[in-house]
Design goal:
461 residues, alpha/beta, 12-stranded mixed sheet, 10-stranded mixed sheet
Length: 461
């Protein structure tokens, strides 16, 4: 993991290909041609572009910060290399140095089953352990999957998040590039996590990766994702789409820690479908960015399916984190748990926005929502917008929310034990987040605490 501030790391390199002609059909056709895609994908992109131009955001999503985002001025596609490589030594030196400083090779050597690194619009490096390849596991970039596994790809692509889902999902569908494609065969349980790392390096960049994870019956996979970008004056956009299909009895854990710089708009659509007795977990960490709008969701479509969402949001000066989770109970005997924790400091704004829906006619469903907010000072804001649509009688649904502040008495007690003011505040914040950090591998938990303390320097040390 990184030992320096990822916001301060920048890379100078010679781009292989760049498209900046704006949001029009010519750009989309050029992009599809550049990638040598089949005709059906070009048609999909063009239809999505039309949806993007026609579709309006819902009223609640028309955040005032979005007025600063000019999608027509973004770089739509920027390829740093011609194609991904599977040997670290083949990565261009200047890009390799960036990822070395961010800690990617070390993590791979220590405990990962496979790793992927995306720089700008394309994956530049990917590797998977031979033991997993022999079991039939597929882990590659999404562009490669379209070419190498066309039948499997087309069967599931855009079935969970169609282009018509929302305005930024449509934008992603028109311009998608890169992302992770994972297929875990029936009965295969991965003992090592898979990791992908996404880096925006150029100013005024649009990153539109598309991730698709298919866990076959009775399989298990743990996927970890990290995201960063350096600080620039001009705004950039991260508008990803993630689709997860957990077939009967499968278990998928998706962990993400996004540490974007304050010039990034992070507008992401993440959705999973859980079939009979399947289990999907979202572990979602949101730091940095100017505006984040992200609500991981699980559709429990068959009996016995389970979905858990655990998220944190940290907002500092000039930042708004609008995040949460959604679970739809569409079958009997389904269970869900949504836990959300937020920290606001130096005028930062955090919003929890969530949905629990239980469809008519389904019984023995259980759902619990827990929202906890911590305000570090009087200038910061935390809001909660829960929505519950319960259309069945034989169910159990709970919701609780709390808001607290760092009290002077707490700091005084810890200072009496030898801690400084900043150390005392940091200990309180890290304790507040412990339900999240204990779900992470140790390296990631340590790194997350360090990043939070760095972002909140002056308030928590």
């Amino acid at each position: 993991m990184t030992k320096t501030d990822p916001w301060q790391i920048t890379t100078k390199y010679q781009a292989h290909r760049k498209l900046t002609s704006g949001l029009n059909s010519e750009t989309v056709i050029k992009l599809s041609s550049e990638k040598k895609e089949p005709e059906w994908m070009k048609r999909f992109r063009l239809a999505a572009l039309d949806i993007y131009h026609r579709k309006e955001l819902p009223d609640w999503a028309k955040q005032p910060e979005l007025a600063e985002l000019r999608t027509d001025r973004l770089t739509d596609y920027l390829a740093a290399t011609q194609q991904p490589v599977d040997t670290w030594d083949k990565v261009p030196l200047e890009i390799k140095d960036t990822f070395e400083r961010l800690g990617i090779p070390q993590a791979e050597r220590q405990f990962l089953g496979g790793v992927s690194a995306q720089f700008e619009s394309t994956v530049i490096y990917g590797q998977l352990r031979d033991q997993l390849k022999k079991k039939g596991v597929i882990f590659c970039d999404t562009d490669t999957a379209l070419k190498k596994y066309p039948d499997l790809f087309k069967k599931y692509f855009a079935t969970i998040v169609p282009a018509s889902d929302n305005k930024f999902a449509a934008l992603n569908s028109a311009l998608w590039s890169g992302g992770s494609f994972i297929y875990v065969p029936q009965g295969v349980k991965l003992e090592w996590p898979l990791q992908a790392y996404f880096r925006i390096n150029a100013p005024q960049m649009g990153q539109f990766e598309r991730t698709l994870i298919i866990a076959d019956e009775e399989s298990e996979v743990n996927y970890i994702e990290g995201c960063t970008a350096p600080v620039y004056r001009r705004q950039s956009l991260h508008a990803a789409v993630v689709e997860i299909i957990a077939l009967p009895g499968a278990h998928v854990r998706y962990t993400t820690i996004q540490n974007w710089s304050k010039n990034i708009f992070n507008l992401v659509t993440k959705r999973a479908v859980a079939k009979k007795n399947a289990y999907v977990e979202w572990i979602d960490g949101n730091l940095g960015s100017k505006l984040t709008m992200k609500y991981p969701s699980v559709y429990l479509t068959e009996p016995g399916a389970r979905g858990d969402i655990l998220s944190i949001a940290v907002a500092s000066s000039g930042q708004k984190q609008d995040s949460g989770g959604k679970v739809l109970h569409l079958a009997d005997r389904t269970r869900s748990l949504i836990r959300a924790k937020s920290i606001s400091e130096s005028g930062g704004i955090t919003n929890y926005r969530g949905l629990v829906f239980i469809a008519p006619g389904h019984s023995h469903c259980q759902s619990r929502v827990e929202c906890d907010a911590l305000l570090v000072d009087d200038s910061s804001v935390s809001n909660t917008y829960p929505e519950m649509k319960i259309q069945s009688d034989q169910v159990s649904v709970e919701h609780e929310a709390s808001i607290s502040r760092i009290e002077d008495q707490q700091c005084l007690f810890l200072r009496s034990r030898g801690l400084t003011e900043n150390e005392a505040r940091a200990l309180i914040v890290n304790g507040f987040l412990s339900p999240f950090t204990k779900e992470l591998p140790m390296e990631y938990a340590v790194e997350l605490n360090r990043l939070i303390n760095m972002q909140m320097e002056g308030s928590v040390g």
